[in-house]
Amino acid sequence: MEFLHTYDTLKLEFPLVGPENAKFVILGVPFDGTTSYKPGTRFGPTLIRQATLNLESYILDYGIDIAELPIADIGDIAVIAGDAKGTAKRVREIIEELKRTNPDAIPITLGGEHSITLGPVEALKPASYVVFDAHLDLRDQYEDNLYNHACVARRISELGIREAIFGVRSGTREEVEYAEEKSITWVHARDYSFDAFVELVKPLPEPVYLSVDIDVFDLSMVPSTGTPEAGGLRFWEVIEALEWLVENKKITGFDITEVAGTELGDVTALTAAKLLFYFIGAMGRDI
Ligand SMILES: [Mn+2]
């Protein structure tokens, strides 16, 4: 199966299957067109794949080897430099094509800045959007661009999709007011707990799309990210929430965005790679 606008890259090292036979389909979106502080998200997909080479595919606490699961890696999307809207459209078209051929596939999108999440969300049309992010991303526009990374949750809410945002410690008064007006629930990083997560996510309609902006984690774990913020979540807090979601809700797609490293061994990419393996492992327990 060939996709328009994709090209080969370094792939995950374990045995892969074609996208038509896969449960999990990885695609990279190396886009950093609207990054406002620290550039480098264009290297995110490659750095995350490189970081996976350091990890055992056996997930110790699950007793499951993800290398035995049907995983495809369709490479990276040829992004349109500086065009977040156009790039998200390409992502959407590729995921739509994938779902036509393999309706059971779970797309896993590796960013790239957070603006690219609009692509898989438009393709998959989830009922709810659950996101871990240091930022609300509810701005109407940023730097005159409706498709800036700081606006992605706003664009998604405009599609009529329910939202819950966790680990937040940055936003504007306007964003808070918009969230209030649209009943978008969010939990500040200081107030985050597993119980708070379950309480807000439990009533959300299915299927759910899960997005992790890597900047949700404590800064020490993710120093290379587009808009770093001190005071984030611990690794296992996010994994426990992810496990609850996998066990209790139908998940239609997943992404990891805003990894902005520049060299092999990047700490942020290592955090993202471990998160990727846990997502696949947690989902794989059901297969
Ligand atoms: Mn963010």
UniProtKB/TrEMBL annotation:
Named cofactor requirement(s): Mn(2+)
PROSITE patterns assigned: ARGINASE_2
Pfam short name (any one): Arginase
Any GO BP annotation: putrescine biosynthetic process from arginine, via agmatine
KW Metal-binding (keyword) present: yes
Residues the record lists as binding Mn(2+): H114, D133, H135, D137, D213, D215
InterPro entries: Agmatinase-rel, Ureohydrolase, Ureohydrolase_dom_sf
GO MF annotation: an example: metal ion binding
SUPFAM superfamilies cross-referenced by the UniProt entry: Arginase/deacetylase (SSF52768)
Keyword Hydrolase: yes
Cofactor remark from the record: Binds 2 manganese ions per subunit.
Keywords (A to Z) from UniProt: Hydrolase, Manganese, Metal-binding
Family statement: Belongs to the arginase family. Agmatinase subfamily.
NCBIfam families in the record: agmatinase
Protein name: Agmatinase
